[in-house]
Amino acid sequence: MHHKDNPLKRLFERITEYNEIAEIGEIARRYFAMNAFDGVLTIIGVLMGHYAAGVEDPSIVVTTGLTTSVAIGISGLWGSFLTESAERKREMDELSRSTLRDQNGSKIGKASRFAAVAVSLVDGFSPFLASLVVLIPFFFTNLFIDIRSVYYTAIGFALLVLFSLGMFLGKVSKQNLFAMGLKTLAAGLISVLISNLLGTSH
Does the predicted TM-score (pTM) go above 0.85? Predict the structure, then answer.
């Protein structure tokens, strides 16, 4: 008597196969780092703007931060899906012409469509997740002395996330991890500095 295959195992095997065909992992890593980076820098701007305006209600900061990151996520998801779908359709059409066979229903075609969806989801969720990490202190304001400490801690989280993203990119590109971390950290520090100068000028 043969036991039925585990559906989760079959799904994992299919995703692995699609990844090998369409190189989803490499593209998804690039999109993840890029959009998470954008998300964190945007949240830094939101935090500095609220700080300069003297906003002391943590719920306002959380709501603004999350809605902003959701907007970035939807933009990334929609944009990357349209871009990836168009690019991969072009590749499939070219492959179909060169092989004189319609490849849309083939395993390559299915892998291509799956890749467009998978990459879009990564692109969409990465800024939201990165922003959520930065906003964690605002969920636990009772652990801090005052709201200023919450802002400082959140900015510290943002810089830490940026440094981590830099190290991640360094690992992917096989470059110096610490040097890449410093490069992304520098972007965050410049963002904080400029936002602070704009805030104090008004």
Answer: no
